[in-house]
Amino acid sequence: MAIIVEEEKKRISWFEITVVIAILLFLGMATYYLFFKPVPGMERIIVAPELESISKVSKITLDVASVTDSPVYKSLIRQIQDSNLGVFGRPNPFASF
Question: Looking at the domain assignment, is residue 29 inside a domain?
């Protein structure tokens, strides 16, 4: 009498295949929306009136030489004294007390 030993055939689990396909679809859609889809509305920016005045101020040029050479600027005196810094910490912070 012959004994036939066969390996058990592995059945295809449709649930596992469906889950893997769903994960791959999700990752593909997320990659598309994050990196490749154009951003809507960026070409139509409406500028508020407050921002228009800010853009006018940002275009002003300042001549530093005219300010520093001004007699009014040169007549300014310092009202506050420089503070004297004390000694901070110990000379060797790792030494024992």
Answer: yes
